[in-house]
Specification:
The complex is a heterotrimer of chains A (428), B (291) and C (339). By secondary structure, chain A is of the alpha+beta class. Chain A has 19 helices and 15 strands. The chains are: A alpha+beta (428), B mainly alpha (291), C mainly alpha (339). Chains A and B meet through helix 1, helix 4 and helix 12 of A and strand 1 and strand 2 of B. Chain C: This is Sugar ABC transporter permease.
Chain lengths: 428, 291, 339
């Protein structure tokens, strides 16, 4: 209701804005912003922004900009791409939007995101981690501010490992040997819980083999799942998966491994993100059980290097059609600045890596964050190209590929089918 | 379908004539089994909603449990819950009433008057019933977006109204056509205007038709998901179907809350059905209820 | 989206009048004396205008909110609109490209065939089982009839959005009650059986849901229709020595033909457009194997952001539906002429 009033008030502003539509409202003076009641809308994903943190960000923001309120709307992951796409086409889109790092490039090329290249100084871009910056830029232009990154580690039940006499492995072989021991020590438990479609984990294995998900070949991208590297990676995935009774055609979110599966017990280890580990711990405690988790990076092929992991994360972008671009940029600068990022990292206890080293949280020994930071050194992201977002949309061909191979189909054949679909989508 | 005086006799006669006991037993058993099959999903929804979470995610279902309202508290404790409720009610009731009003006029003309283009109109109404609204959402979205009419309950009401309209016209037309013209003429001879004749003669006879079409309209609008999802991103302009699906999150599918929300969502429809259906579905169940 | 379980009856019109013919008579005298030129008389519009005035609101609103979006949809189907164009609001003309792409796409034809099979299977099951239950209702004692019809009403009244959630939950791989039922009945392999493993199994469950939700409409209306078939007709059939089956074909069916026609028509269009049930159940998966036309259009359009292509799919869907239904329209128009 309130928003509609504001929309009505904004009509006048819009009429002015229409003429300036193409080049955006950058030149709108700040005086405009400080006068009268204004609201900027921020879309964050479910689970990204701890309430306490974002509330104090907004408090600080409102203190700097009297009369401006920040409306934070939490979005569900399901159907988010459709929602963001339509939202960016609207006249009053959310002003700031959180985008997955693998999807940012896809939106950048649509013209739906504001070009932030000129605002680098204001945003403090120099301090950003280079590995995270990569996903925020397309062709040298900046379209978003990196926010956080995270990667997965193996979470294990210390008691089960102790009982089986297994210690955290350093190599894949040790890992498998440990799983064998776990199986022998408690045949009713799953040595590891691994659903068939955790494609981010598979991506790590493919990178370990020296392969990739897709490569650019003569101006065109093509899928790389029909390669021997992908087959070898899938082979290892299949071996790991054979220690789990998890569904072969689901990913880790259906059912949610952290809150639906782990709290039930009967799982000695699993691969997850920080918030998942936290969620599982909380659910176990709520159920009156104790949670004694240990963490280790996904082992590499040799002991000198941990397994390559997918460096997931999120960026924050400003919508090109935002009516309050300047305010949005200022909010962005505040939220992703060193001060607030330090608070952020502390708030999430290091489970998410902040966008700059200076904001890092020193994790406690033996914590999730410690293992994650170690594993994150060997992190990679999916191909940075506009078309990648299309590949990830459901039905995701990588997931279908995995399920097919796990069910016995030939990896080369399934890979060729997936590559065809990937090529189809990535070049759009 | 009929009516208050609807003949129950055939049923009764058939019944009394049936001497075969085993057949009777089989029939009743079959009916009982069918009743169970039809009711089970509804029962399971309510029972899952009332279970504590620890007894929902079990491999073997729990049938005996201490009911708790936790899930309902969680489902209704969501931000904007009452806004969703009000929005759903406003949009649904608005669309249904509007449809009844507009359809009454149109169906009266179609059923009772001769005019050029009448046949085309009938055909148009027939075809309009087939409109695949779900695949038109993008076109509708682009129209509303370009007209600056997103996030509007009024627009939503209007769309639902048009969704329900063809069926309403079609059904009411049948009811009006079934009222003998002589009745109307008699009323006019008695000094009624045509309008009065409509009000006093035809309208009362339409009650079952009005009931059944409003029931149809209510369910259509109450359930609608695809349009509101894309048109109204502003949470203050959203409706209950969107609320219903929000308990599946990155942190897990909260089945208890989802089932509680489904129950809350289904209850008004169930109640309306139980109240209205006897009239709406006409004499059909009058026989069943009164025997 | 249109709902499948509708709260309306269709066999109504035929017999509506008889019943309350008495009521209005009591009311009409209240109209008082007969001032032949009544109030409205003077101002009355030329009678030629009145029908147009009456249908105007309906026509106008349908033109604005149904016809216009449809036309917009057709225009879209000739444009090459993907994510970039959509966000930039550009509408480049693409000619028949979307259509030629579809017609040359074997996936599209698979989906078309699947849609027909799905619709046929569902409507057949709904009509046969629904009619049988209607007949059963007619033959039950009053208590059993009350129990069964209440159960039917419950299923009928369940909003689709809610019932999809419930069915999904019933068939959940890990905690679903159906796996337990199968285990209890002694079947092996249902420890963690995945009911949504293939497109066929997914559509089977969708079919269960659709049939479960639609039967009450057919059954209850069938029962209502049966009560209007005069007892003497059964009598006569019995005298002729007809058995139950013959009675059905000779007495019941001809009398309820309009009911069967209308109901089948409605079920066909409702099932053909069953978007929510299929999409919400498994998003058209696994591997797009449970997509029917509306879901195909949605996945191509919304998820893959090929808006022009999706519009072309929807236009073809409408055309297919029109062709399939054309015989029915002819029938209705014929009826109109006879009136």
């Amino acid at each position: 209701m309130k928003r509609k009033l504001i929309a009505a008030v904004g009509v006048v502003g819009m009429m002015v804005g229409v003429a300036a539509c193409g080049n955006g409202g950058d030149d709108k003076p700040k005086s405009d912003a400080s006068g009268g009641a204004k609201e900027i809308t921020v879309w964050v994903m479910d689970g990204s922004a701890p309430k306490a943190w974002i509330e104090q960000v907004n408090k600080e923001f409102s203190a700097k900009h009297p009369g401006v309120t920040v409306k934070v709307e939490e979005q569900k992951w399901t159907g988010i791409q459709e929602k963001v796409t339509t939202a960016l086409s609207e006249n009053t889109p959310p002003d700031v939007i959180e985008l997955g790092n693998t999807q940012t490039a896809g939106y950048a090329v649509t013209g739906g995101l504001a070009d932030l290249t000129k605002d680098k100084a204001q945003l403090g871009a120099d301090a950003w981690q280079k590995s995270m910056l990569a996903s925020a830029e397309v062709d040298g232009k900046l379209y978003s501010a990196p926010w956080y990154a995270a990667n997965r580690v193996v979470v294990y039940d210390k008691k089960a490992y102790e009982k089986a006499g297994v210690t955290p492995p350093k190599t894949r072989d040790e890992w498998i040997a440990g799983l064998e021991k776990l199986k022998a020590s408690d045949p009713s438990a799953q040595p590891i819980y691994l659903p068939g479609q955790s494609w981010y984990i598979l991506a790590g294995f493919i990178w370990d083999e020296g392969g990739d998900l897709a490569v650019k070949d003569g101006g065109k991208w093509k899928g790389q799942l029909a390669t021997p590297q992908a087959a070898a990676a899938m082979d290892f995935y299949k071996k790991l998966q054979s220690y789990s009774t998890a569904p072969k055609d689901k990913d880790e979110a259906t059912p949610q491994q952290s809150t639906d599966i782990i709290p039930k017990g009967g799982v000695s280890s699993w691969i997850g993100l920080g918030w998942e580990a936290g969620g599982a711990e909380k659910a176990l405690k709520d159920a009156g059980k104790d949670a004694d988790f240990g963490y280790f990076p996904i082992p590499g092929k040799t002991a000198d290097k941990t397994g390559t992991v997918f460096l997931g994360g999120s960026n924050l972008a400003v919508a090109e059609r935002s009516k309050n671009k300047e305010l949005a940029k200022e909010w962005l600068a505040l939220a992703t600045g060193k001060d607030q990022m330090t608070k952020y990292a502390t708030e999430v206890k290091g489970a998410l890596l902040p966008n700059q080293v200076g904001a890092n949280f020193t994790p406690a020994a033996g914590s999730f964050a410690e293992a994650m930071a170690k594993a994150g050194l060997n992190g990679k992201i999916t191909p940075v190209t506009a078309g990648w977002a299309n590949v990830e949309t459901e039905p995701n061909p990588i997931k279908e590929f995995m399920t097919k191979v796990l069910k016995g189909e030939d990896a080369a054949k399934a890979g060729a089918e997936a590559d065809k679909e990937i090529a189809n989508r990535i070049n759009k | 379908m009929s009516t208050t005086t609807a003949p129950n006799e055939p049923a009764q006669q058939l019944r009394t004539r049936r001497p075969l006991r085993p057949a009777t037993v089989a029939k009743n058993l079959g009916a009982l089994l069918l009743a169970l099959v039809f009711v089970f999903p509804v029962y399971w929804m309510f029972s899952s909603a009332l279970k504590p979470n620890s007894e929902i995610l079990t491999k073997d279902p729990v049938f005996v449990f201490t009911p708790t309202l936790d899930n309902f508290t969680k489902a209704t404790g969501v931000e904007n819950f009452w806004t969703y409720v009000t929005n759903s009610l406003v949009v649904t009731v608005g669309a249904v009433l509007l449809a009844l009003l507009v359809a009454l006029a149109a169906s009266f003309a179609i059923a009772r008057m001769k005019f050029k283009g009448r046949k085309g109109l009938v055909l148009g109404v027939m075809m309009a019933q087939m409109a695949p609204w779900e695949v038109m959402v993008i076109a509708m979205y682009m129209i509303m977006r370009d007209a600056e009419m997103l996030n509007s309950l009024g627009v939503l009401t209007a769309i639902y109204f048009v969704m329900v309209l063809p069926f309403t016209i079609w059904t009411l037309r049948g009811f009006i056509a079934a009222v003998p013209v002589t009745l109307e003429e008699a009323a006019q001879i008695d000094g009624c205007t045509r309008g009065q004749a409509f009000r006093k003669v035809i309208f009362p006879l339409l009650a079952p038709g009005l009931m059944s079409t409003s029931l149809f309209g209510f369910i259509t609008a109450w359930n609608e998901f695809a349009m509101v999802l894309i048109l109204n991103k502003d949470k203050t302009a959203q409706t209950l179907p969107l609320w219903l699906t929000q308990f599946k999150t990155a942190f897990g599918n909260d089945w208890g809350a989802t089932m509680a929300a489904s129950s809350i969502f289904a209850i008004p429809v169930l109640v309306i059905f139980i109240f209205l259906q006897r009239k709406a579905v006409g004499g059909m169940t009058a026989g069943a209820v009164k025997g | 989206m249109t709902v499948h379980s509708q709260g309306a009856t269709t066999s109504a019109p035929q017999d509506a009048p008889h019943q309350s013919a008495g009521r209005p008579k009591a009311q009409s005298p209240a109209a008082g004396p007969r001032p032949t030129p009544p109030r409205g008389g003077r101002k009355q519009l030329p009678s030629g205008w009145l029908p147009y005035l009456l249908v105007l609101p309906a026509v106008a609103s349908m033109a604005l909110l149904l016809l216009y979006p449809l036309i917009k949809n057709v225009i879209l189907s000739f444009q090459d609109i993907n994510k970039i164009e959509f966000i930039q609001r550009k509408y480049p003309f693409g000619g028949f490209a979307n259509y030629t792409q579809l017609i040359g796409d074997s996936n599209f034809w698979t989906v078309v065939v699947r849609s027909f099979l799905f619709t046929f299977a569902n409507v057949a099951l709904i009509m046969v089982i629904g009619s049988l239950i209607g007949i059963l209702l007619n033959r039950l004692g009053k208590w059993m009839r009350l129990v069964l019809s209440m159960a039917l009403v419950m299923a009928w009244a369940m909003p689709i959005v809610a019932s999809v959630q419930v069915f999904y939950w019933l068939f959940d791989e890990q905690f679903g009650v159906m796996n337990w039922v199968m285990r209890t009945l002694g079947f092996s392999g249902y420890e963690q059986h995945n009911w949504f493993e293939t497109g066929l199994s997914t559509l089977t469950i969708v079919t269960l849901l659709v049939v479960w939700g639609s039967i009450p409409f057919v059954a209850l209306n069938m029962y209502a229709g049966l009560t209007t078939v005069g007892a003497e007709l059964y009598e006569a059939a019995r005298m002729d020595g007809a058995n139950g089956w013959q009675t059905f074909w000779k007495v019941v069916f001809p009398n309820l033909k309009p009911f069967f026609l209308v109901t089948t028509f409605l079920e066909v269009i409702w099932v053909f457009k069953a978007f929510t049930q299929v999409y919400a159940m498994n998003k058209g998966g696994p591997d797009r194997a449970s997509e029917i036309l509306p879901v195909f259009a949605y996945v191509e359009g919304q998820s893959q952001a090929h808006y022009g292509l999706a519009a072309a799919i929807s236009v073809l869907t409408i055309l297919i539906l029109l062709v399939v239904m054309s015989f029915y329209f002819r029938l209705i128009l014929k009826q109109e002429e006879e009136q």
